[in-house]
Amino acid sequence: MPQWGDTDDAANSVLWGVSQYNQTANSTTQANFFENTTPDAFVTGATVGQFGMDTTEAGVSNGVVLSITITNPGSGYTANATVTVEGSATANSTANATGRISTITVTDGASGYTTPPTVTVAAPSAITFNSNTALFETQSGINANSDVSNTANFITISSNPFSNGDALLYSVATDNTAIGGLSDNTVYYAVYANSTGLALANTSGGANLDITSGPDETGHSLTREDGFIEIASNVLQDGDYVTYAVATGNTAVAELTNGSQYYVVTANSSGVRLSATKGGTPIDLTAGVSETGHTLTGETATGAAVLSGPEGAAHAGWVVRTVGTGGRAGRIQYETLVAMGSISTDSEDTILPDA
């Protein structure tokens, strides 16, 4: 089996080019390594492939922006973000349902670049909430008779806003009789919650309580006030890093500090809880003044441009092209494997266009 040739195709690429990435040098890995542009295929955290470069390609210095690598997808994006590329290249982004920037697409690669240009992604919009009404939810008017199932131990609540694990204060109006198995002014936890109602337990995730329906009375309520911040159509996810801010003239939530960062925990589609540490204990927030000037803002996404043209290639021949990530995101490095001086029957590589 020949170790290499001067024809720009997979069969003539350097057989042992993959050996430095702990891959077996055979025809399969040789073919996979040829013009590879798949991230992490051979080394974690980088895109590595082998290309045939002729003297014309080695002379390219008037590069275009070929692609933009997302180095941090950000968080809390409720819409696509504006992308600005240094120079005259243009690009746009797409945000996904989890609040991340999932793709950045180059719309005009322009030309004249000799080094990767700076890429700036606009910050996510601040998510606004009311420091009073968003921090607690009360379902009143529960009928101790018609809304309580003795057999299923289930309380019917139309369009139930509560989720499994929510701490709920049960209250009974004056002259009403408590639902059997429950006590007035006592905290219970939602279990088996769905859109039509819930069961209650003494502990989060515990066994549901055996409850008994009572008189035909509507003076029964459940109130959530345990640090959950209601956000309609929430896109923030567990582990997201967010900044809390308070508008001028508003009063900060007692347990939070204006301009400070927190981590999202126990997020769902209807809201979040916050913690001082990633995956930590939720902060028990107290509802404050009824004001809407309170916001949570996620992390700003970042990207790095990848240029066409062999920036840093020594000379023509078979070369390995590495595109870095992290602190070296978008930076290209070339290593010449065989100093052949020329590649015959050169193909027009996608990422190594002729000058």
Major β-sheet strand ordering: 8-14-11-12-13-10-9
The DSSP helix count reads 2
Secondary structure category:
mainly beta
Radius of gyration, in angstroms, nearest whole number: 30 Å
Order of helices and strands: HEHEEEEEEEEEEEEEEEEEEEEE
What is the helical fraction, as a range of percent? under 10%
Taking all residues together, what is the mean pLDDT? Answer: 88
Share of residues in strands:
25-35%
Distance between the termini: 33 Å
Q: Tell how many strands the DSSP assignment holds.
A: 22
**Main pleated-sheet profile:** 7 strands, antiparallel
Shape: elongated
Low-confidence stretches: none
Domain tally = 4
Overview of the structural elements:
By secondary structure, the protein is mainly β. It has four domains: 10-59 and 309-338, no CATH class; 65-124, no CATH class; 137-224; 229-297, no CATH class. It has helices spanning 27-33, 55-58; strands at residues 47-53, 65-72, 82-85, 90-95, 101-108, 118-121, 127-129, 137-142, 148-149, 154-156, 167-172, 186-194, 197-201, 220-224, 229-230, 241-246, 261-268, 271-275, 294-297, 302-307, 317-323, 332-338. The chain has a seven-stranded antiparallel sheet, with no helix packed on it. The chain is elongated and about 95 Å long. The two termini are 33 Å apart.
Can I get a quick summary?
The chain has 355 residues and is mainly beta. Helices cover 3% and strands 34% of the residues.
